[in-house]
Design a protein that fits this description.
mainly alpha, flat, 54 residues, 43% helix, 0% strand
């Protein structure tokens, strides 16, 4: 969903079987922000998913 929203030129169409188990707009907004932050953190160089914390 976020890919389609952010890059519609790269998405020809979507099939939504169950778009989200969360149907509260405020919760969806918080979840989206959280996932965006986590995505950025996992993209930091030198931080593999299995690396122990420093």
């Amino acid at each position: 969903m976020l890919l389609a929203r952010d890059h519609p030129e790269n998405v020809a169409g979507l099939v939504l079987l169950d778009p989200t188990p969360v149907n509260d707009p405020a919760t969806c907004e918080r979840l989206e922000r959280t996932m965006r932050v986590l995505g950025r953190l996992t993209a930091l160089p030198g931080r593999a998913a299995s690396s122990p914390p420093c």
